[in-house]
Specification:
Blueprint lengths: L6 E7 L2 E8 L4 E3 L7 E5 L18 H14 L5 E6 L1 H12 L4 E7 L12 H9 L4 H4 L5 H9 L1 H10 L10 H4 L14 H14 L2 H8 L1 H7 L12 E6 L10 H6 L2 H5 L3 E7 L6 H4 L1 H12 L3
Parallel strand pairs: 3-4, 3-5, 5-6, 6-7, 7-8
Antiparallel strand pairs: 1-2, 2-4
């Protein structure tokens, strides 16, 4: 795990203490230090060394976006470049939806923008498509997933999640997770040092903070009603792996490639589908991903 030249500090933002790692000087990217930029990577609330409140109510989309706005203020910046992946991408989409004035340009990875459907709550929709064993459905009951993960062990759970490369839905079943008695081999892009570091961080504050993001999905749907039909008006590039499970969600590929994403993100300039790459493409192909990011933001 390369950490040379990275500094760490804790920043008070939006009523919590947020841990950030920083490297480089120049225009600020929240999320290419070696290329003349100041890179700032925050642990979102509930993760790593940032505060992790146990209450689901503390993880609304307004809390999450508010954290980033406060972080941008704390960095002394009017505007920043933003790079997001997975839930970081979802929060970044909403940062640009709510506060486009604070973002110069956006590169989002893995999770495409999902416009609010006024007659379809997210969790109900997922249950109707995939059933109760889908991981998001299983995450809804407070404490259930935490008990399962505690039984299996933090490192085993993370190994299983990072090793998952099936381009389809993820079901949280005993059959899929397997037994902790059987070693799960790590993908070649992840070292034993990496997995131990991640496990240590999750053992520090548990999985509840991260799972609360999913438990807030329906509440966020209710809170975001005023933005039904609203567009993300920030210059954007979107990158996804062709083996990413999110890319194989029903309807997503048509939405991305047949005008839906462009309709709701009118300043979308490029979509990149990386071949042979799964969900963690920024770790699987770090140099290629960095090139894609730099090639876009250097234009601003």
């Amino acid at each position: 795990m390369a950490t040379e030249g990275i500094t760490h500090r804790t920043v008070p933002v939006n009523g919590i203490n947020m841990h950030v790692a920083e490297k480089g000087e120049g225009p600020t990217i929240v999320g290419l230090a070696a290329r003349g930029y100041r890179a700032v990577a925050p642990d979102l609330r509930g993760f790593g060394d940032t505060d992790a409140q146990p209450s689901v109510e503390a993880y609304s989309i307004f809390h999450l976006v508010g954290d980033l706005v406060a972080l941008i203020d704390a960095l002394g910046q009017e505007q920043v470049f933003v790079v997001g992946h997975d839930w970081g991408a979802i929060v970044a989409w909403h940062l640009c939806l709510f506060r486009p004035d604070r973002v110069k340009a956006l590169v989002n990875i893995s999770v495409a923008f999902s416009p609010r459907k006024p007659n379809a709550k997210p969790v109900e929709t997922l249950r109707s498509i995939y059933g109760d064993e889908h991981y998001i459905a299983r995450f809804q009951e407070p404490g259930e997933a935490e008990k399962l993960f505690a039984k299996l062990g933090t490192e085993f759970v993370l190994r299983r999640l990072f090793a998952y490369r099936t381009p389809g839905p993820f079901f949280l079943t005993a059959e899929l997770l397997g037994s902790p008695d059987h070693q799960v081999p790590l993908p070649p892009w992840l070292s034993e040092e990496d997995i131990r570091y991640f496990a240590d961080k999750f053992e520090q504050s548990g999985f509840t903070g991260g799972i609360n993001y999913y438990r807030s999905l329906d509440r966020n749907w209710e809170l975001s009603a005023p933005w039904t039909g609203a567009q993300v008006k920030v210059p954007t590039k979107f990158i996804v792996g062709d083996l990413d499970l999110s890319y194989h969600t029903p309807g997503v590929q048509n939405f991305i490639h047949k005008g839906g994403l462009k309709k709701f993100v009118p300043l979308l300039e490029e979509v990149v589908v990386m071949e042979g790459v799964g969900h963690f493409l920024n770790q699987e192909k770090p140099s290629e991903t960095t090139d894609h990011i730099f090639d876009f933001i250097k234009n601003f």
